[in-house]
């Protein structure tokens, strides 16, 4: 029964995210909002909606380890597994701006979470908690990130250089259908999120596995399916560089917005998420930056992709061995 809840909830989440994204993008296009803005906001929200739904549902139900493990595990999965798998299909070119701006921001977000989640070490507290203050701080970082992204896009002229083919990729639906997609998508996200958390918690209890391990592996992999699908399709269409933007945008969104919202609603107690997990998160971003700067001349090669995948396999093996 728990497996049915898990699979059914995930399907509802993915369908809901897709419907919500299509409906919102159609409304945005109707009001002549540039595609770059739609991509930076609505589409980014759509691919991270599963993580947002699962984390908020988990936080409200008192399953903080699933809420935090979902974000930490998703970001590790994104950086190591998704980039690694995409590089196996086609080497990923990284622009100079991405190496100078976006990837360092990703590293910064990981360090910010590491600092916020170390109350015992830094403050001498009895336990590590992502407090409401921490959540609001992460949301402030998210607002700065959005403002920075729009400013860069406007300065570089990207707002005016959207091609006709990009515009045509967004379907303009009738208003009633857009509203139906948005409402149906939200309903799917909410119901699916509840089912998914119930299923994941039930599986953890029945197997005697901690919710943190389930959140870091099963839940993280499941909620990262939109990013994985987007990146693999981009590689098959000979646009592997999209994978980097997809992964970095999702990672920043997950930490700053998803965890920011979750912690702002209710404090998140870290019981099963350790500094080992958080340092792997930081290390994965640093490894991606190092590969881009030093080894492949701003390209993630197939060999480097294989190393990223092996790192994820090793991390998962450590989690399983430590049970």
From TrEMBL:
It comes from Bacteroides fluxus YIT 12057. One of its GO terms (molecular function) is calcium, potassium:sodium antiporter activity. This is K+-dependent Na+/Ca+ exchanger family protein. The chain crosses the membrane at residues 76-94, 103-122, 128-151, 179-197, 213-236, 243-266, 278-296, 303-322. Residues 3-150, 178-320 form the Sodium/calcium exchanger membrane region domain. The keyword Transmembrane helix applies. It is found in: Membrane. PANTHER family: INNER MEMBRANE PROTEIN YRBG, SODIUM/POTASSIUM/CALCIUM EXCHANGER. Keywords: Membrane, Transmembrane, Transmembrane helix. It comes from the Bacteria. InterPro entries: K/Na/Ca-exchanger, NaCa_Exmemb, NCX_ion-bd_dom_sf. Its main location: membrane.
